[in-house]
Specification:
Alkaline Phosphatase, subunit A, 739 residues, alpha/beta, 3-stranded antiparallel β-sheet
Length: 739
């Protein structure tokens, strides 16, 4: 492979040059030792690329390979020759030399090191820096340079410290590249609260191939490292390394640099003051145009949920009561609702909620130009209580946010992009479906055939009131596909639970079978599909479509089994989000449409509410009712006659005016979509549905804040992702099952 060959040649050249320098020049031992250490860094980088390419995980691009090899070899040679070259540096600052200010020159070297460190951060994923806003690029360079300068002075003007900072941000840049590759979403602050979840799935079905731009980024990182070394060398050989009396000054300067960064990011409102904001319907564009660091900071500043404008808890409670009364006087007073309520109170059917991993109907993308018709059984269900499009706030990942919205009824639209309530917020006071059913005398169980710590579920499910949580430990011998527990295996477990327990149950099944990535090549031949998109076979897309067909088949078998049961069962089945790749089809095939409609196509899945008995008050003719995931729990409870909380009644009343809302936008009752960042004054000024939907959106934000945050127990979670089993005396040791 060409990259392996070129990187290998660079590695050998670096070693030869290093050995030559170390054997022909005997200079100061300290400088020689540090030069060897710096040189080894560049050699290790070359060796890594050579090996990674050797196993087929580097894009075979000659230009990037040559540039990387040449730059790292020169940097390695300069490092091994540090002792000799230090004399050349010293002569530039002697009485006859052209330079007079070594410290200023070191700072200039650090500035250029910061510039190249910024390139090392951005280039792997952001390939067109000319598209960035110049002031945002300047801000990013300034912040990174200030951080590097701060640690440079704290480390008493040694170059290793700022080089470590540059290396850390380059690693973030590589990580950003892979996250975008696998999820079509950038790294956001909430991701940091779910690192254990990311680690748990990182090795499942993903191929970590470095692109040519990753090699360019590594080359820029190498230059940044060498400039940091140069800054330290200048101070070392000119006597600019301070004496003991001046150590305190260095520490003071370093602390001032870092404190300045801290004050800047905490005191300046990036959104309102600097205009740096994350467009929730296209966050990648925000990161590309504004830079990773400014965008990340702006997003982080929204982690603390702001109170809605003109919020007052007493007034909001009165508002909630008013909306609930509107429901009671309207749909709540209907004959259909009365019949369903009487039936539910008498029968107490078991309710099974299946949130199916990445289940979506991609036939909405012009049948993928491949005559793809979507999941056939799911689409053929003709006796459902309700079904329709389901608008969500997750795309390519972020499963836990969809289940948060479903279980609690709270909309991510008011919490923002890149926020994961399960891992960030204190949800102990949050109403939810599990708690509701438990108060009705139901046995409650959640299941997810993966680690209990993923998305902090072990703590959240306990707080929500689930009696039991079945994890991967309970599915050790279950059927697997691509190494993941199948949908069918979870359904078999549910059927066993129904057979063994006659009590009414609420079962929440979060499946795993269809989790990305889709380049595993592990599907058996008889389960593979062969759809040609514009005549071209895409292995990644076909693996996904094959998994959806398996989900569809398993759902059909599950429904058939439930039809035979002599007990009443309700199933609500929905997908949590689309996979990460349809955006390219959306942009290529849907060009002349408004931006809101265009964006929302990516943020929709499907749902169905089905029962194996005649639900009173329902014709069960698969009436189509498009909605968003935050309303689905209330719609479920309403359609089967289950008791509703006042908050759910208020949601249903709001839904009459605003049928759907997610982080991307919101819909009025005429079917018009608006992007989340729309000027609400203009919408309201249009009158009619626009004016009503603006009020409904504002009212729901206040009621949600009241339900979610207006309590005295603190906003942020008090438990970590692996602490539940250690801290809760009600849990059996080593399990996630409640005693």
């Amino acid at each position: 492979m060409i990259v392996t060959l070129i990187s290998g040649i660079g590695f050998i050249a670096s070693l030869v040059l290093g050995i030559r320098e170390l054997t022909t020049h005997a200079d100061e031992r300290a400088l020689r030792r540090s030069g060897i250490a710096w040189g080894v860094v560049f050699c290790v980088l070359q060796l890594f690329v050579a090996i990674w390419s050797g196993i087929g995980l580097v894009q075979q691009d000659i230009v990037s390979a040559v540039l990387f090899a040449v730059i790292t070899t020169l940097c390695a040679w300069g490092s091994f020759a540090r002792a000799r070259l230090s004399h050349l540096v010293a002569r530039q600052f002697d009485a006859e030399g052209p330079l007079r200010h070594p410290l200023a020159t070191s700072v200039i070297a650090l500035v250029f090191a910061g510039i190249f460190a910024t390139l090392a951060l951005e280039v792997p994923s952001n390939h067109d820096l000319m598209w960035m806003y110049p002031l945002c690029l300047l801000l990013e360079v300034s912040l990174l340079t200030a951080a590097m300068a701060g640690v440079f002075f704290l480390a008493q003007r040694h170059g290793a410290a700022p080089a470590i900072i540059a290396g850390m941000f380059h690693f973030v840049g590589i990580a950003e590249y892979f996250v975008i590759l696998f999820k079509s979403m950038p790294i956001q602050p909430g991701d940091l609260s779910a690192l254990s979840t990311a680690a748990a799935v990182a090795g499942t079905g993903y191929t970590y191939t470095l692109s040519a731009f990753c090699l360019f980024g590594m080359a820029f990182a190498a230059i940044s490292f060498f400039l940091c070394q140069l800054a330290g060398t200048i101070c070392a050989v000119t006597g600019a390394v301070p004496s003991r009396k001046r150590v305190g000054i260095n520490i003071l300067v370093g602390l001032l640099c870092l404190a300045g960064i801290g004050a800047h990011v905490t005191l300046i409102d990036y959104y309102n003051t600097l205009g740096i904001q994350i467009y929730t319907w296209r966050p990648l564009e925000s990161y590309y145009r504004q830079g990773f660091i400014p965008s990340f900071i702006s997003s982080a500043q929204t982690i603390i949920p702001p109170k809605p404008e003109n919020y007052d808890s007493d007034e909001t409670q009165a508002l909630l009561d008013e909306y609930a009364a509107t429901y009671d006087a309207g749909e709540g007073a209907s004959t259909e609702r009365a019949e369903a309520t009487a039936q539910f109170d008498e029968e107490q059917p078991t309710v099974i909620a299946v949130m199916n991993e990445t289940f979506s109907d991609l036939s909405i993308y012009q049948n993928l130009h491949a005559n793809y018709e979507g999941p056939q059984f799911f689409k053929s269900i003709s006796d459902a209580v309700l079904r329709g499009r389901l608008y969500v706030s997750a795309y390519g990942g972020g499963t836990a946010n969809t289940e948060f919205e479903f279980l609690t009824g709270n909309a991510m639209a008011y919490l923002g992009q890149g926020v994961y309530p399960y891992t960030i917020y204190n949800l102990t006071q949050t109403g939810n479906l599990a708690q509701q059913f438990k108060e009705l005398g139901y046995d409650t169980c959640a299941m997810h055939p993966n680690h209990a710590t993923n998305w902090n579920r072990e703590n959240v499910y306990r707080d929500f009131g689930f009696d039991e949580f079945l994890t991967i430990d309970d599915f050790q011998d279950a059927e697997k596909l691509r190494g993941m527990v199948t949908d069918a295996a979870t359904y078999d477990t549910i059927l066993d639970m129904l057979e063994e327990n006659e009590n009414p149950q609420f079962i929440f099944d979060v499946t795993m079978q269809n989790h990305s990535g889709y380049t595993t090549g592990l599907l058996p031949y008889d389960k593979q599909t062969n759809y040609l998109i514009d005549g071209t076979y895409d292995a990644e897309v076909n693996e996904y479509l094959a998994l959806i067909e398996e989900s569809d088949r398993a759902l059909e078998e599950f429904i058939n089994e439930l039809e035979q049961l002599d007990r009443k069962v309700v199933v609500v089945f929905f997908g949590d989000h689309q996979p990460f790749f349809p955006s390219e089809y959306n942009d290529a095939w849907f060009t002349n449409e408004d931006e809101a409609t265009h964006a929302e196509r990516l943020w929709q899945t499907d749902y169905v509410i089905w029962a194996n008995y005649d639900v009173a008050g329902s014709g069960q003719t698969s009436e189509e009712l498009d909605t968003s995931i935050n309303y689905l729990g209330a719609l479920l409870m309403n359609s089967i006659g289950a008791p509703l909380t006042d908050y759910q009644k208020a949601q249903l009343a709001v839904r009459d005016v605003m049928p759907a809302i997610n982080t991307t936008g919101f819909e009025d009752r005429s079917g018009t979509w608006y992007l989340a960042g729309v000027d609400e004054e203009e919408v309201a000024a249009a009158g009619g549905d626009g004016k009503d939907v603006v009020k409904a959106r504002s009212d729901l934000s206040k009621m949600q804040y009241l339900e979610l945050f207006d309590h005295d127990d603190g906003i942020f979670t008090k438990t970590t992702q692996d602490a539940a089993n250690e801290t809760d005396p009600n849990l059996d040791p080593g399990t996630t099952k409640i005693k």
